[in-house]
């Protein structure tokens, strides 16, 4: 199904259960390559990105059993003897690069297609490679592939990241678990998903300290073992439903959330005029449809700043706020692909460098629109839900990468949606 028909009008209301975090499950699935014992991961969201990671692990020789109704996957990498990741899988998902740290640590070798650019920017990997090189890996780039060798094993090193890259922090952390001696990663990412990965690594016998601060210390161990782990809730999925409540003048309660992880989005929603409150099992966002939204300025930053993964959805909200808002994207260089589509729905947005200047208008109009990537797609679904008339969104497959059961969850809140081939 590639097309989503959105018939707008209803304020969305009800209760929605948030699934496990895409950005946690991908590195944690990759980390299961670090041990020959079985790892059981719970609260695994049924996402196409997780399915790609599953396929990659199987191609490397791991055996997996994903029980989608139980939301659990068992991964056994005992026979994962292959170290070459296939191009057709890796090219479908950039996070595939996260297998390199575990492969290098356990097998001493990894070969993977170099990731190209993508819809939101160039997305280089030099920080990952600099970390591996500091730990003694030899790196060869040829014919569109990068191969990494550390036949004698990796050695602990002090690594300073020029930018607190989430993926580089995760890859280096995983590689360091089996390295000789101590690795220190400075200026590392502090996202909740880093802490989740660290908790998983420690549960399989690693010695990782300081995750969630800007310095992580990893003392290498000889061997890791199997364990069970439950993935944290997806803060971007929760944030998207929070925006949906404020945007449509609705009332949505999200269950299975971590309140702290949502602070940056909560603060901006309150500034924009929504009511956000903690409930016994989650969080409730509401706005009286008669009450206008206020303008808000946003700058995306590494955690705990405002997440780049919520920038597009928040911009949709600001298109109907009274007055001028400025959204500045500092994490990725090309993350305004949704702007052109929002303009086709009647939004008034100008881009100046890394900022978008949004003049709020009374409402959006339904239109045929195209999702260029996952979060841009989410912004357009939200726009369709708030617009007058019907919208036809193509490229729905992008949303399946990161939103589990999106259509049924939105229908449960009162949205009128239809999926078409
Ligand atoms: C992860 C998330 C993604 C989120 C992003 C930022 C996953 C699977 N994806 O992506 O949803 O939007 O964090 O919060 O967890 N950079 C370099 N050199 C590098 C690596 C990164 O310059 O070697 C730059 C990137 O081009 C980008 C910035 O650092 O401008 C942030 O990237 P990074 O934090 O690495 O994002 P990802 O891990 O790819």
Fold and architecture overview:
There is one protein chain. The chain is α+β, with helices and mostly antiparallel strands and 421 residues long. It contains 14 helices and 23 strands. It has helices at residues 22-31, 48-59, 87-90, 100-107, 126-134, 166-176, 192-203, 235-248, 263-272, 311-318, 337-344, 374-386, 397-400, 406-412; strands spanning 3-7, 13-17, 38-42, 63-67, 72-76, 109-113, 138-142, 145-149, 158-160, 182-186, 207-209, 215-219, 227-230, 251-255, 275-278, 282-286, 298-299, 324-328, 348-352, 355-359, 368-370, 390-394, 416-420. The strands form six sheets. The chain has a four-stranded mixed sheet with strand order 21-22-1-23, with helices on one face. Strands 2-14-16-15 form a four-stranded mixed sheet. A four-stranded mixed sheet has the order 4-5-3-13, covered by helices on one side. 52% of the residues are buried. The mean pLDDT is 95. Uridine-diphosphate-N-acetylglucosamine binds at residues 23, 26, 95, 121-128, 163, 165-168, 193, 308-309, 331-332. Residues 23, 26, 95, 121-128, 163, 165-168, 193, 308-309, 331-332 line the site of uridine-diphosphate-N-acetylglucosamine.
